[in-house]
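CHAIN AND CONFORMATION:
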Amino acid sequence: MRVEVRKATADDVPLILEFIRKLAEYERMSDRVRATEADLREALFRERPASEVLLAYAGSEPAGFAVYFQSFSTFLSRPGIYLEDLFVEPGHRRAGVGTALMAAVAKLALDRGGALSWSVLKWNQPAIDFYLRLGADEVTEWSGYRLAGEALKRIAEKA
């Protein structure tokens, strides 16, 4: 079946939220989803969007999505793209949907003059295997960290 990838529009917000919920379920994090359609519409489709979304279709059926945003390498002094999320419906996996999404995001990264980077959960071996098949290199020199909630508030109060 032919896979088509296109940029999401504001009309796609319900589908984007559906994919977010399915991704969260797959990643065992459904309890963390707070996004609403209004939140997504505001974040993704304002004058300076916080992020962008590509949607993949297998024929006329929604098959997956990629959420990404511009990053910046201080060492290279060049922009890049950070792939926040990639999700393919289980029934469409191993059918070229993930590759089509990655190819589309990679093309954007090249067009914008930089590299493409992302993180993957350590237990998600199917995703790791997929990325390695694409030729990705595992970055082992870095560990990810996050400030959120009360910890973020506490440090922000020191400003």
